[in-house]
Specification:
7-stranded parallel sheet; TIM Barrel; 2 domains; two-stranded antiparallel ribbon; alpha/beta; 9 strands; single chain; 50% helix
């Protein structure tokens, strides 16, 4: 951000600054792909949540949501002109800028919220946790809405030239959602999404997703992005080639806090343990020094004898 002048919070809302910052992570640090946006509030705000815009080093946050009670869910629909909404239009415009500035061999990846995350944002975490047990049919309405919005948005990104979409859906993970309900309440929506997407797809779930890894691998997503809380060697055995494992270096405890040599050591071990694509387990912290990200990239190159 300091190098480019494209800083948060403006880079969340200005397509030119968003594109500039996204490309800089590729050009300055050597990260293979260009990945954006940098927050998870695009779809929640589009569907009715109130957002606090964030600061230089904090992401935008949801401060209010539309579904306070069960009766509020009945009025929720995907807007007829979803793709013309201000926030989504910004991402699509940023995509056009990114594609115009890059060669075709640079992967372009966009992150969007999945159905569970959208549902949780729309009704608040307390309702989300209660309704999955006491009112599953109400929560199902929000999951259906989220699935529809997610699919339409993702396909619009593919149409603009995005190579892969990451569906960020940590609210379906065991840290929040009861694992016994994952197969019946969440998995059908994932299969609907993957059956209807027109490009490469990745599922990202924060936290310890160990209990649902097997079902995640059956969802149809080509890539599964996991956090450092998941034992990678074990995950490799469970997934067993059904999807590409992505991760799982800690963005805080490793990339932000450890030395370049320690970062290299952990990254190489990650590859040894079976990761298909070396990546941070979640978003890179804003204050992470550039040299540490370069060390992370160098670890991959050294391991495979590249460069």
């Amino acid at each position: 951000m300091e190098i480019t002048g494209a800083k948060w919070p403006d880079a969340h809302y200005d397509p030119e600054k968003m594109a500039t910052l996204a490309i800089a992570a590729h050009e300055i640090t050597g990260l293979e792909a260009v990945r954006y946006p940098f927050c998870n509030t695009v779809m929640p705000e589009t569907l009715g949540c109130t957002i606090k815009e964030g600061t230089l080093d904090t992401q935008p946050q949801i401060i209010d949501f539309p579904c306070k009670e069960k009766k509020d869910v009945a009025g929720m629909t995907v807007p007829d002109k979803l793709l013309e909404n201000r926030r989504i239009r910004t991402i699509l415009q940023a995509t056009d800028i990114v594609k115009s500035r890059l060669s075709d061999d640079v992967p372009v990846i966009a992150g969007i919220l999945g159905p569970a995350a959208i549902a949780c944002c729309l009704c608040g975490v307390n309702n989300y946790l209660m309704w999955c047990i006491t009112e599953p049919e109400v929560l199902e309405e929000l999951l259906v809405l989220g699935t529809s919005a997610c699919t339409e948005y993702a396909n619009a990104l593919y149409d603009r030239g995005v190579d892969a979409v990451v569906i960020i859906d940590s609210e379906s993970g065991p840290d929040l959602f009861p694992p016994p309900l994952f197969e019946s309440m969440i998995l059908p929506h994932y299969r609907s999404i993957t059956e209807n997407l027109r490009g490469h797809s990745i599922l990202h779930i924060c936290g310890d997703a160990t209990e649902i890894l097997d079902k995640m691998a059956d969802s149809g997503f080509e890539g599964l992005s996991i956090e450092e809380k998941v034992n990678l060697a074990y995950a490799s055995q469970i997934v067993a080639g059904r999807a590409c494992l992505i991760g799982n270096i800690s963005p805080v405890f490793t990339l932000l806090e450890r030395s370049p040599e320690q970062i290299k050591k952990e990254a190489k071990q990650c590859i040894e343990n079976g990761v298909g694509i070396l990546a941070p387990g979640c978003g890179i912290a804003p204050q992470t020094p550039v040299e540490k990200i370069r060390a992370f990239v160098a670890a991959r190159d050294e391991y495979y004898g590249l460069g």
